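DM from R.C. (forwarded with permission)

"hey, sorry to bug you on a friday — could you get me a structure for this? deadline for the figure draft is monday and I only need the backbone to look sensible"
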Amino acid sequence: MKKLLFVLVALSLILLFNGCGKKAAKVAPAQAPVVEKVEEPVTQVEKPVLSEEEIFQQKTIEDLNKDETMKKINFDFDQYQIREDMKPILQDNADWMLKFPTVQILIEGHCDERGTIEYNIALGEKRAEAARNYLASLGVNAAKIKIVSYGKSKPLVHGMDEESYFQNRRAEFVITKK
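My reply, with the result:
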């Protein structure tokens, strides 16, 4: 019986050491089935390309003025003649007005702070008139253009240097009616 017990203990020890001594074989994890990603075509709604007329119709007068659709021009000191470098700007303004003949504008004449109030009111008016006359010479209906002079009362920039003065000597174009 001792022999049988000895054999059983020996067998148990052999099985115990045999099982612990070996590393367990690595089993590859079950791979998930490969699923190919199929991209479905996405229907994109393309925004229609709007014509210049459609864009014009969608914008308010405030939008057009805020976008500076019509550009301002500047003048030399104590002058109201249109500068050569300002003529292309007036040409662009005229071209735009000719595309949209229902438009009416107000040309505001402005001056720098030098001179008397009365003198600058008169000079601002001459600047606005000169701009209106130039637009009319390019084919714009002068009846669609009103003028006003603010003289030196509405400076664009504040400063007492030539750059500030130049920016304040101007005619601005305000769209009043579509």
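R.C.: lifesaver. The helical segments are 2-21, 52-58, 61-66, 87-99, 117-137, 162-168.
me: no worries. The domain at 68-177 is CATH 3.30.1330.60 (60s Ribosomal Protein L30; Chain: A;).
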